[in-house]
Write a structure and sequence with these properties.
The complex is a heterodimer of chains A (about 350) and B (about 425). By secondary structure, chain A is mostly helical. Chain A is about 35% helix and about 5% strand. Among the domains of chain A are: about 120 residues, Cytochrome c-like domain (Cytochrome Bc1 Complex, Chain D, domain 2); about 130 residues, Cytochrome c-like domain (Cytochrome Bc1 Complex, Chain D, domain 2), CATH 1.10.760.10. Chain A has a two-stranded antiparallel ribbon with strand order 2-3. Chain B has about 425 residues and is of the alpha+beta class. The chains are: A mainly alpha (about 350), B alpha+beta (about 425). Chains A and B meet through helix 1, strand 1, helix 2, helix 5 and strand 4 of A and strand 3, strand 4, helix 5, strand 12 and strand 14 of B.
């Protein structure tokens, strides 16, 4: 009998949890080196297992947060646009549409530390030092009113913090709580009286089409996103035309129009035109010809700012390079956009942005 | 059409009656006279005279242009951006049970990364006798298994908790795909590292994580890890697609898709659940009183009529109608699917295209006749545990109104006299 057959037979029989001491080994793979395990084995458990040495205080955390996190999560962890809110929502879990944040919902501080450490910042993950992570987590606790402003989070103080919803979870109880769904199915006379429609569909056609109605019941995301989009549209459309009139000589109207379409991909984060505000990304009015990082008060990446200081300006060439692969042109840019694949899309959106020259 | 038994005699009469009543549309049956000869038959067509593409035209083929609308779609406002987001399988337009990889839904937390086989490493560490590192080539030298399983995102139908939201089976039920996986059992790899160091396995866990920026770690109880979890590198016969975790992903049969870690890079044997973000702040189910269920891993029995449905209106007028759909259960095989045309007052048992298989999609059909009447179309799945798919109201009675995940309630399509359908909730 071949080794293969012996093994599969043993596997088929041994579906229990008996330690399979008899299992033959294939001798494949190699021993993992301690430094390799250390490099990847970074998860942190509720009891603090896995935490590295280090510490960070609330005030440092506020600075690091402003630098690394606020672009999506807001200066006060309140969330920008559709990005997650990290603070607030206290005592809302039994309400309609509860607000689930680190403070109101997350059961363990280890989860926050682990997630910030391994999965954040979005688009630049696994670059924070342990001290920075301690500081950010301390600031998130502070923004949830869970610690005072002189609090220092460290490996030592970690277990002193208990999150409010630590006892808010029960294990899956469907087998008992929903045991009544194991039943003999009814086949006739299962309902009495006329069947009436209690709720019609909210989005009748393509859910992405702007012509579809947006209902109050469409969920938080729809409520937050749809009005913002409407606003942006109302502000931008006429401006595009105005600007185009001024710049007729220099601009290719068709290309501007095409660029407006391409710009839809950018709108989640960028506004342009009269009344445009900084959102997740900076305002793009007058971006063509300006130096990198030209909007006062916007929290650009350090690289973007220093490139600007070195005199790099946004022109057709630099913008094309950036838009092809943002992170290749501006290393560590906060822009989490993967880039435009088609050259014609880049040309079009460049022309569109030119139409908002100041 | 031949009648070979008494039982089918009735359906034959119903069929003929339906045909006679049918409006003279393009779908008219053979008994309807054609006034003029069909030029597609009588005139020589280009394709019957000229030449088509050579064998070198398409080294790897995509569907023909006429099927260009059978694609994954996303809903922009559901998420903050398209990188940490989800799209939907066009289940309304597919048939059978296997989902082609190219239109199988995607869900990423930090985008779909490109990871070469040569750069791929899989580490096993923690409570094992010998921590190991495998290359991709190593994995292909372990005994392989083939299994068909569905992968359903826990949030599938999640938007529908709040009422009827999106108009189409693709949007309401399209966070699912079903593929034939080739891979090595997780048990084999754990045994290769040796579980002696773990001691009593009953209270042990396996923590799995991906190589992408989200890491997406999940804790899996050892019992499941040693049962049927697969470390897969092929789907439907070919390499996994980038968006599904190329070169290696975890397959956790019957359990929520978030646990099917893509770009699998590490397996750690632990003595406790890690309680990562994806198993605490997300993928947990908040009940009416504000407490939340966690570790709700298995996906309950569920079904959906894929056609007719809002994206697949009835265009052929009255007469023979095929009602088709999908059913699945994370707790075993589908044993039966019933279909109701009157909003759940009466039910008839549908025909399963093949006997249900454990944790895999099952295709059902109800071959029927449409007289042009309005219907409230529903389907109801039963699995081998005796569980019968509940209504949304029955689920809300247990779980309250604040659920996000694990909605396996019965879906209603309102079929109107003009053949159009709408997603509704009914009394």
């Amino acid at each position: 009998m071949s080794k293969f057959l012996k093994l599969t037979t043993a596997t088929a029989l041994a579906l229990t949890l008996a330690a399979p001491a008899y299992a033959e080994k294939f001798g494949l793979g190699r021993a993992a080196l301690p430094e390799e395990v250390a490099a990847w084995n970074k998860d942190v458990s509720p009891d603090g297992t896995g935490l590295p040495e280090g510490s960070g205080d609330v005030l440092t955390g506020e600075e690091v947060f402003a630098d690394q996190c606020a672009v999506c999560h807001g200066d006060f962890a309140e969330g920008v646009g559709n990005w997650p809110k990290l603070a607030g929502g206290k005592d809302t879990l039994a309400d309609k549409d509860p607000l689930k944040t680190v403070g109101s919902y997350w059961p363990y501080l280890s989860t926050t530390w682990d997630y910030v450490n391994r999965s954040m910042p979005f688009g630049n993950a696994q670059t924070l030092t342990p001290d920075e992570v301690y500081a950010i987590v301390a600031y998130i606790l502070y923004s949830n009113d869970l610690v005072d402003d002189d609090f220092v989070l460290s490996k030592e103080t970690f277990l002193d913090v208990e999150l409010p919803n630590a006892d808010g979870f029960i294990l899956d109880d469907r087998l008992t709580a929903e045991a009544h769904f194991v039943r003999e199915p009814c086949m006739s006379d299962c309902k009495t009286g006329e069947i009436a429609i209690t709720r019609n569909v909210v989005f009748k056609g393509d859910p992405n089409s702007p012509d579809d109605p947006v209902s109050e019941s469409a969920g938080e995301a729809a409520k937050a996103a749809a009005p913002a989009e409407e606003e942006a549209k109302a502000e931008e459309a006429p401006k595009a035309e105005e600007a185009a009139v001024v710049e007729t000589a220099a601009l290719d109207a068709e290309l501007v129009k095409a660029g407006e379409k391409v710009f839809k991909k950018c709108k989640a984060c960028h506004q342009v035109g009269d009344g445009a505000k900084n959102k997740t990304g900076p305002i793009l009015n007058g971006v063509m010809g300006a130096k990198l990082g030209h909007i006062e008060g916007f929290k650009y990446s350090k690289t973007m700012l220093s490139m600007g200081e070195e005199g790099v300006i946004w022109d057709e060439a630099t913008l094309a390079e950036f838009l092809t692969k943002p992170k290749a042109f501006v290393k560590k840019t906060k822009m989490s956009f993967a880039g435009l694949k088609k050259e014609k899309d880049i040309k079009a959106v460049t022309e569109y942005l030119k139409s908002f020259s100041e | 059409m031949t009648s070979s038994s008494n039982g089918s005699g009735q359906s034959r009469r119903a069929f003929l009656k339906g045909a006679a009543a049918a409006v003279p549309a393009a779908a008219a049956v053979a008994t309807t006279a054609q006034a003029e000869a069909d030029p597609l038959i009588t005139e020589l067509q280009d394709w019957a005279s000229g030449l088509g593409d050579g064998v070198d035209a398409t080294p790897y083929g995509l569907p023909i242009q006429y099927e260009g609308d059978v694609i994954r779609r996303n809903v922009e406002w559901l998420t903050a951006d398209t990188i940490s987001s989800i799209n939907f399988t066009p289940i309304h337009a597919l048939d059978g049970t296997i989902t082609p990889q190219g239109c199988a839904f995607e869900r990423h937390h930090s985008g779909a990364i490109e990871l070469k086989k040569d750069d791929y490493r899989l580490m096993i560490n923690g409570l094992v006798d010998q921590p190991l590192v495998f290359s991709y080539a190593d994995l292909e030298r372990f005994p392989r298994e083939n299994h068909v399983y569905f992968c359903e995102c826990a949030a599938n139908s999640g938007m529908e908790w709040a009422g009827a939201q999106l108009n189409g089976a693709q949007y309401t039920h399209g966070m699912i795909h079903n593929m034939e996986y080739t891979g090595v059992s997780l048990r084999t790899l754990l045994e290769e590292a040796g579980l002696g160091a773990a001691g009593d396995l009953k209270d042990k866990w396996v923590y799995v994580e991906g190589a992408d920026a989200s890491s997406n770690g999940r804790s899996i109880p050892m019992e499941k890890a040693l049962d049927d979890v697969l470390v897969a590198f092929k789907a439907n016969g070919e390499a996994l697609r980038k968006e599904h975790g190329y070169p290696v992903r975890l397959v956790v049969p019957g359990w929520e898709g978030n646990m099917w870690v893509k770009w699998l890079r590490r397996i750690e044997v632990t003595n406790q659940a890690i309680e990562s973000r994806e198993e605490t702040s997300k993928y947990t189910d908040t009940l009416a009183d504000g407490t939340s269920r966690k570790w709700t891993w298995a996906m309950d029995a569920k079904s959906i009529v894929t056609s007719p449905s809002p994206q697949m209106p009835i265009l052929h007028g009255k007469g023979p109608l095929v009602i088709s759909g999908l059913a699945w259960s994370g707790k075993g095989a589908i044993t039966r699917v019933d279909v109701s045309k009157d909003g759940g007052k009466t039910w008839e048992t549908a025909r399963l295209a093949k006997p249900g298989e454990k944790m895999a999609l099952t295709r059902f059909y109800l071959d029927t006749t449409w007289d042009g009447e309005e219907m409230f179309l529903q389907s109801r799945a039963m699995d081998e545990t005796g569980y019968v798919q509940p209504t949304k109201d029955e689920l809300r009675a247990v779980r309250g109104e604040n659920s996000v995940y694990h909605n396996n309630g019965i879906q209603t399509w309102w079929l109107k006299a003009d053949g159009e359908l709408e997603n509704v909730e009914i009394s």
